[in-house]
Amino acid sequence: MSMKNLPAAPMGRPSASLRSEILPRALERWSPEVRAADRDEERSISIYDAIGYDPWTGEGVTAKRVAGALRSLGKGPLTVNINSPGGDMFEGLAIYNLLREHEGEVNVKVLGLAASAGSVIAMAGDTVQIARAGFLMIHNAWVVAMGNRNDLRELATWLEPFDAAMGDIYASRTGLEAKAIAKLMDSESWIGGAAAVEQGFADELLASDQVGKGGGNASASAVRRLEAALRNSGMPKSEAMRLISEFKSSVGDPAGSGAGDPTERAGSDAGAQVLSALRDFSLT
User: Fold this and answer.
1) Relative orientation angle of helices 237-251 and 262-283, to the nearest 10 degrees
2) Predicted confidence band at 27 (pLDDT cuts at 50, 70, 90)?
3) Higher-confidence position of 125 and 252
4) How far apart are CA 268 and CA 156, in angstroms?
5) What is the pLDDT of residue 237?
6) Has residue 14 got a pLDDT over 70?
7) Higher pLDDT residue, 243 or 263?
8) How far is CA 201 from the centre of its chain?
């Protein structure tokens, strides 16, 4: 399912004196040597560094560099490998928007850590895969600032729309309510691979981490995608989950479709409604 209908992220900075910095705890838990796939794949971009330009080292992943890479690759499917402690939020939002606008399917792979601004970039994928031992970290915008109490109150007000914008991106990807996302951001949440898939931040684990394809993990991912399709067709979440439950019961019924089976009609009706909703969704 394409994620091109995700909300756009705000561009620019609210003030020339405001800078977004790497959260120290994210930097402490990140190692540039943790690379689950060190070789470059065809049509891929690897983000294995902090987000934003570091004038002291000349390193860092910037929107300008990503834009150049996208121009050189041209249209078509693209894989984005991420292992980053995050960094400059505004650069991260710009990279997110660049990937959203790319003319071709974007598959994001979180190989180690996608923290802070790196987690925002990860949300731009049409599909998002994460290592079982990988992590996403989300939190509110974190800045280095100085001034008197009035300056700092004004700064807090400046930051609110950026927290809201990031929250909107996470909510649109996961289907979670804005309040739930805000709580996760307030708590500086570290989300492991399996939890990221369960909560909707990722679609599935990396192929190498998927045990027993067609089993529990794959089924959970399929159910989540089916729920998203039903909800996008205008169906309430409770109704979508009820239909999915009935549909699963009928498909997995070992008794078959024998006459008089009390689940037969319910399962058949649920299947028809699911297929109808999916047809409507595919036409939108």
Assistant:
1) 130
2) low
3) 125
4) 54
5) 66
6) no
7) 243
8) 4
Q: What is the 3-state secondary structure (H, E, C) of the chain?
A: CCCCCCCCCCCCCCCCCCCECCCHHHHHCCCCCCCCCCCCCCCEEEECCCECCCCCCCCCECHHHHHHHHHHHCCCCEEEEEEECCECHHHHHHHHHHHHHCCCCEEEEEEEEEECHHHHHHCCCCEEEECCCCEEEECCCCECCCCCHHHHHHHHHHHHHHHHHHHHHHHHHHCCCHHHHHHHHHCCEEEEHHHHHHHCCCCEECHHHCCCCCCHHHHHHHHHHHHHHHHHCCCCHHHHHHHHHHHHHHHCCCCCCCCCCHHHHHHHHHHHHHHHHHHHHHHC
Domains parsed from the chain with CATH numbers: 24-209 (3.90.226.10), 216-283 (no CATH)
Q: How far is CA 232 from the centre of its chain?
A: 17
**pTM for the whole thing?**
0.65
CA atoms within 13 A on the CB side of 215: 6
Both tokens assigned to 49: 């560094």
pLDDT in tens, 71-120: 999 999 999 999 999 999 999 999 999 999 999 999 999 999 999 999 99
CA distance 6 to 4: 5
Tokens linked to 234:
């205008």
CB neighbours of residue 26 within 10 Å: 25
Alpha-carbon dihedral angle through residues 202, 193, 122, 12, given to the nearest 10 degrees = 120
Q: Cα–Cα distance between 81 and 48 in angstroms, integer? A: 8
Q: Is the dihedral of CA 217, 218, 220, 225 positive or negative?
A: positive
pLDDT at 42: 67
